[in-house]
Amino acid sequence: MSPNFQLPEGFLWGASTAAHQIEGMNVNSDFWAYEHSGMLPERFMETSGDACDSYHRWPEDMDLLAGLGFTDYRFSIEWARIEPVPGQFSNAEIAHYRRMVEGAVERGLRPMLTLHHFTCPRWFDEQGGWESDDAVELFARFVEAAAPIFETNVDHICTINEPNMVAGFATLRKAVLQGGDGSGMDDRRPDEATTASLIKAHQGAVDVIKRLAPQIQVGWSVAIANYWVVDGGEQKAVDIASRSRDVFVRAAEGNDWIGVQAYTRVFVGPDGPLPVPENARKTLTGWEYYPPALGESIRSVAHLVPETPIIVTENGIAESDDAVRVAYTSGALAGLRDAAAEGIDVRGYFHWSALDNYEWGSYVPTFGLIAVDRKTFERTPKPSAAWLGAAGRSRSIALSAESAN
Predict the structure, then answer these.
(1) Would you place residue 404 in the very low, low, confident or very high pLDDT band (cuts 50, 70, 90)?
(2) Bridge partners of 14?
(3) For residue 306, with 0-12 CB atoms within 10 Å meaning exposed, 13-18 middle and 19 or more buried, which class applies?
(4) What are the φ/ψ torsions at residue 213 (nearest 5 degrees)?
(5) Contacts 24+ apart (CB under 8 A), 134-138
(6) 258, 310 in Cβ contact below 8 A?
(7) Residue 156: CA atoms inside 13 Å, Cβ hemisphere, count?
(8) How far apart are alpha carbons 297 and 171 in whole angstroms?
(9) What is the per-residue pLDDT for 181?
């Protein structure tokens, strides 16, 4: 196998962000409320605040990505800004996100839009969130209202980011509201009602988009964990995979594509997921450093929905040493290359993330290709950004053979 990865014609090559994590002052969102509620203090160690101030500095972010060589940019539009109160849509915010779409195209970046990246309007959450009787209809209404943002110049839309994590957080939140502290909770136990609602909401959003802009390729992105069995945990691993991964993957069958988001692996024993082994190399999130996760995740998804094209919508590492980021990503891309060589239909790769940003409770885990000063908001591309971005121009990236370990 060649040490290089040759990008096929039309292959998407970009980086990803999420509105709440980079924009700043998303005060009408449910997560802003969570951050300031005192709930789960071990998770919300910091509030998002100004984040990266990308609400105002998005032109600079896009200039950097385009200048580095990337051809694609995945970013989300914020429902809480567009519909701050029920049924009242902000034309100014719709125009803001439309300018971002046009700005990306002007810079030679193909925009992939995410319609829901973890955050909802606070009012939606307060009336029951995804378990409310009209949740599916309310999301479809939002998608239709947002149509001026995406009806032209957008080729790919992700309806909902990591619905399995959204449903897992619903389980955790219920436990806390019932008087628990959330400790010991397994995030891989998605709430069943939330799961059902999210699948219906995704399908409803697909219908709206296809009616209004049938040329757009629509899918959703799923967090793909590969479960490694130890000490007789076979049945437990099957049970966990079924409810926390497979049901969401199969919901994408027949879509234009499915997004794979992969970072590490999970060991499972007879009683459930196990801690990361003490002697394992770890990242700033405490996850195991495991580059082969991407290739394994692609194969898992291809096995479940073999006729659905795959786009890697997130893959990366929380790391302060940028040389480690390059090594990890090189190993991950080797897995992608090998899976594609086996005949799996992989159509793109988006690195997580474009910027060091707010990681849902803390700024400590630095996933970004571009560093951001927390006070001045100065952007500084890292060597990994130049290495990865250059492939967008050359359509080839050199991979180190030893980096997969």
Answers:
(1) very low
(2) 72, 350
(3) exposed
(4) -150, 75
(5) 135/197, 135/201, 136/197, 136/200, 136/201, 136/204, 137/204, 138/86
(6) yes
(7) 29
(8) 24
(9) 59
CATH label of the domain that carries residue 293: 3.20.20.80
- Report helix, strand or coil for 100: helix
Rounded CA gap, 227 and 269, in Å?
10
What does the block give as tokens for 30? 């449910």
* Other Cβ atoms closer than 10 A to 253: 12
pLDDT tens per residue across span 26-78: 999 999 999 999 888 888 999 999 999 999 999 999 999 999 999 999 999 99
Residue % of the chain over a pLDDT of 90: 92
Tokens for 181, please give them: 């502290």
**To the nearest whole number, what is the mean pLDDT of the chain?**
95
Phi, psi of 62 (to 5 degrees): -70, -40
> What is the tally of structural domains in the chain?
1
Q: Which two tokens stand for residue 255?
A: 């879509």
CA of residue 121 relative to chain centroid, distance: 19
* Token couple for 347: 């159509």
pTM value surpassing 0.90: yes
Backbone angles phi, psi at 268, to 5 degrees: -130, 125
Tell me the residue range of the domain where 81 lies.
Answer: 4-404
Q: Which two tokens stand for residue 68?
A: 């580095």
Residue type, 26: N
Place of tokens 């300031």: 36
